[in-house]
Amino acid sequence: MQSMLNFLKTVRRKRVVILIHSLADLDAVGSALALQSFLRNSSVIASDLPTAKARKLLKFLKSEVSVGGQLDCDVLFILDTNSYDMLGNLADGVRNFKGEKVIIDHHSIHSDSIKADHLVVDNRYLSTSELIYELLKKLKCKILEREALCLLCGIIDDSAGFRNANRKTFSNIANLLGKTRMSYDDVLRFVRTDADVSQRLALLTACKRAEVEKVGGYLVAKSTVGSFESKAAEALVEIGADISFVGCRGKDGARISARMRDDLAKKLRINLATQVMEKVGRILNGSGGGHACAAGAAGSDIERFDEAMSECLRLTRQMLERK
Ligand SMILES: [Mn+2]
Where are the annotated coiled coils located (predicted)? Predict the structure, then answer.
């Protein structure tokens, strides 16, 4: 943390690009915009359009994230990911980037993580926004209403309805709310958007197709959808599964999302990212990672999609039977 603070002070006026991951969520966009308030000569870019929720925040703030483009800068910041896989078609640009690379992220270190000159990667934080907030506070950077809203959106959205929140998260939220005239409810308007029809249809399809297995008293569900696989995996846990895997096979690649009830990570000492999805990612000729209770895998080998889905179940059975 201290070395990152010292470093940030030295690059304040340098030409900076803040790169965020593909399908940038509120945490990625929120943390990038907040950091931008400190790095005066910076722009935010991504390989593709941010999610609908993040675009709503950008529109409200009359701000934007450039899609694609050159990494033309002295210092490259990468936020909310430490994996090349999440950078879309900008991954090669990052690999070949000659200037200084910096990563600030709250995901566990990826097996193929981006080599950076400076990094704070700490999975004890629930969001990158919270990490950025702590850095900005320590830098004595004045946080205006705009940045407060960005950070609030990022922190609240990534806290999964506060199920994973700790004492510090709540105090950070209270402090940030004090910096804006918005009420908590006003902020929630950005975080909670009504799901569109296609998303609701995907979740209902996931339920309809779900195969549920009882392993050692736990319910493990697997299903497939055409999109929104992470939302669908979340939905299956919400309605009763202890662990869920939802896959989505596209034309050029396949993705699988995994979710587990939060209390089970500690109770069973299971980590879906390292014990399941990293291995499953390799089957798909890609990679996997994430958190203990929320993980995913993606890769290009769509022929092995069914095998990858079965492997999720097999590894889970193995873990649960050992308990
Ligand atoms: Mn995040």
Answer: none
